[in-house]
Design goal:
By secondary structure, the chain is of the alpha/beta class. It contains 26 helices and 16 strands. The strands form 4 sheets. It has a 5-stranded parallel sheet with strand order 2-3-4-1-5, with helices on both faces. The protein has a 5-stranded mixed sheet with strand order 12-9-16-14-15, covered by helices on one side. It has a 4-stranded mixed sheet with strand order 6-8-13-7.
């Protein structure tokens, strides 16, 4: 039940003051610690007698090692109970734009720091109306972008004289003009500026935004409602009796039920973002305007047709209004399936459930607006993962990522001073740099590899191998050279450049330096894990150099995995003289084939090294199954990739097309080769009739070539 990463953290914990004997105490009382690990709220669990005297902060350190998913909640409990802090530090105050306005002045801009799904423009418009500053006469609204800077300058200079308001939206999209904005704000003089003038700015968090404008301005942020209940409450707060009964259909309940289904769909697509890459590969900015236009179209189509055109509604809502924002193919597959659950004739009957346990369902036919609001008020305060299609493991994965993000932020805020145990900060960095330097091998002899593995028509893997050596040499050279330079700089033999200083800071924090990641393959591992993984990859190619290509390939070890897959296709195409664009992959999971297997398949290849996220592979059942509790990732057995002509591919199995990614972020950029920097390929996995493709799509099941630790 204990992961190797958690055990490593516990061993490191033993080096801290007050935990010298912790590892021995842990090994002597393993049964208790397993119960602690399985507990729903381990932070509140009473510890053994020999640990009764430790502080709440020390309890959090133990929790960090064993159950990182509970750390954020524990920190909130700690802050709430700390006498010098208290509840007000964890509960955000209610957003009051009028109060913020009172704190501002004609020379002090009001800055909205945007978060996904929030549009403060309507709040500014509402306040403007209340104060007598209505658009377009006394409130000038400009959405910044290319060429809009000059227009904004003119508007500001006019408003400074006549006392109007100027709202500049999306400042982060006009980076080149921001220095000019900084100068304009600095030049605002209370003596020459109309006292009624106000400058409103909105921007996503951006490193390019002028610091002086932030320091001088009133800063505001307003996050969207969190949770399905809050989201539905927000939607139905804007629905009155007139709108609720506005359908011209004979049976008005059809519009009411579908409107509720749309509101629930809207809440779901927004709240899935909280699950990170499990929810959406890319966090899209769905907002209220998507729901408003969908509701209008819903009413138009219901009023205009006797039979409800569900197919057209699903297309408009799932593919255009919401789907228009979706740029990732796998996310598009998900939103299509989600829309089918809510824009359906099943919702018109009574008892239609949105998830298996029955807590979330459509209100009964004939329910009034008050009944709908009462139903929403009685929904669970904390969202059940099942309503999204997830299990409890998804919540653990989400919470783990939240903890890592919080701790990374804390690391970035810590003072750059010396560590404990008498060593200075520079000593720690130098020791680490020397240790990594010693472990790095020599560069590969590419010319020798070209002779030993020449370009041959029948074996494309030779070309793949040589290209991989060139890529790894580039990274290895960067690592070796920068480590030598850093050690010299720490000793005062060369000047400590900005890049070397940043590299030292990252290494001290246990993170991979930026100058390495620029030349590296995608990886989210911390420094120690990254170095070990890098050495494993180098070792794989060193063994290939000595003994030829392996019988079973470690797919995670390749720098550019797509070249390996193309090489596999090319070998098959040349062997059977078939055009390469007519070849597709078939897949078979072969658990009996281990990485020490003595032979290669006649066609295609064996691969291993993949991890299944959100499910597990059942070897007896020969299909994907639901994961065990707290089993966040499971190791996939060996897979045989079988190239074949498209027309020969058998379609007689129930399959889930499972995407494979390099890292758990899943999203990637489209590179110049036409490939995503993160997506590798889609593998067809067998599944049961009771768990069709739709089930696994909603659960966010994917395979990864590497874990984050």
């Amino acid at each position: 039940w204990l992961s190797s990463n958690s055990w490593g953290q516990l061993c490191n914990l033993g080096k801290l003051k007050g935990f010298e004997n912790f590892v021995e105490q842990f090994t002597e009382n393993v049964k208790f610690w397993e119960e602690y690990y399985q507990d729903k709220n381990p932070f509140q669990k009473e510890l053994p007698e020999d640990l009764q005297d430790i502080t709440m902060f020390q309890k959090m350190i133990i929790l960090r090692c064993l159950r990182p998913d509970c750390v954020v909640d524990a920190i909130q409990t700690f802050v709430e109970n700390e006498p010098s802090l208290g509840k007000e530090f964890i509960e955000p105050p209610l957003f009051d734009l009028g109060k913020c306005f009172e704190d501002s002045s004609s020379t002090m801009p009001l800055v909205f720091i945007l978060s996904v799904g929030v549009d403060p423009a309507k709040d500014v418009y509402a306040l403007g109306k209340e104060k007598g500053f209505e658009a377009p006469e006394r409130l000038i609204d400009i959405s910044l972008g290319q060429g809009q800077g000059i227009k904004a300058e003119r508007a500001i200079s006019k408003a400074v004289e006549d006392g109007s308001w100027v709202l500049l939206q999306n400042c982060h999209l006009c980076v080149s003009w921001l220095p000019r904005l900084e100068k304009i704000v600095q030049d605002l003089n209370p003596d020459t500026t109309n006292k009624d003038f106000r400058l409103w700015l909105t921007s996503m968090p951006s490193s390019d935004f002028p610091v002086s404008v932030l320091q001088n301005g009133v800063k505001m942020t307003n996050e969207p409602p969190k949770g399905l209940r809050a989201n539905l409450k927000s939607t139905f707060a804007g629905i009155d009796e007139d709108l609720f009964d506005s359908s011209e259909r004979e049976d008005k309940t059809q519009f009411q039920k579908l409107m509720f289904g749309l509101a629930f769909f809207h809440a779901l697509v927004q709240e899935r973002r909280t699950f990170g890459p499990l929810g959406w590969n890319i966090p899209y900015g769905f907002n209220d305007s998507d729901q408003d236009i969908s509701r209008q179209q819903l009413q138009q189509l219901l009023d205009g047709y006797k039979d409800i055109p569900f197919k057209a509604l699903r297309y408009l809502i799932g593919q255009l209004n919401y789907g228009g924002r979706v740029t990732d193919d796998w996310d598009r597959r998900l939103i299509t399936f989600m829309c089918e659950d809510f824009v359906t004739d099943k919702i018109l009957g009574d008892g239609y459930q949105f998830e298996s346990k029955g807590a979330y369902k459509a209100p009964a036919k004939g329910a009034t607006l008050d009944d709908y609001n009462d139903y929403i008020a009685n929904l669970p305060l904390v969202d059940w993962p099942t309503v999204f299609g997830f299990d409890d493991n998804a919540t653990m994965i989400k919470n783990n990522k939240d903890t890592l993000k919080l701790l990374d932020t804390l690391l970035g805020l810590q003072p750059r001073t010396g560590g404990g145990s008498g060593k200075t900060r520079e000593d720690v960095i130098e020791e680490l740099a020397v240790d990594i330097q010693k472990r790095m091998p020599e560069l590969f002899e590419v010319e020798r590899a070209k002779v030993k593995f020449p370009v041959v028509y029948s074996e494309s893997m030779n070309t793949v191998f040589v290209q991989e050596l060139v890529r790894f040499n580039r990274l290895l050279s960067t690592v070796r050279t920068s480590l030598v330079e850093l050690v010299k700089a720490l000793k005062g033999q060369v000047v400590m450049s900005t890049e070397l200083e940043a590299m030292g800071n990252k290494m001290f924090d246990g993170q991979v330096p930026d100058n390495w990641t620029k030349k590296s393959y995608p990886s989210l591992k911390p420094l120690a894990g990254w170095v070990s993984d890098f050495l494993e990859r180098l070792n794989m190619f060193a063994n290939w150099m000595k003994g030829g290509s392996p019988n079973v390939y470690w797919i995670s070890g390749f720098f550019f995995t797509q070249s390996f897959l193309t090489g596999t296709k090319q070998n098959y195409a040349r062997k059977y003289t078939i055009p390469i664009d007519e070849i597709v992959f078939d897949f078979e999971v072969v658990p009996e084939v281990t990485k020490e297997h003595k032979s290669k398949p006649s066609d295609g290849c064996y691969i291993y090294g993949l991890f299944l996220e959100g499910a597990k592979w059942g070897e007896k059942e020969n299909c994907i199954l639901e994961a065990l509790p707290k089993q966040l990732y499971s190791v996939m057995p060996t897979i045989q990739i079988k190239p074949c002509a498209k027309k020969e591919l058998k379609q007689d199995k129930i399959l889930y097309k499972c995407p494979v990614y390099k890292t758990s972020t899943r999203a990637g950029q489209l590179s110049t080769t036409g490939h995503s920097t993160n997506f590798v390929l889609a593998v067809d996995l067998r599944t049961r009739k009771s768990h069709p493709e739709k089930f696994w799509v909603r659960r966010g099941v994917a395979m990864l070539t590497q874990l984050d630790t």
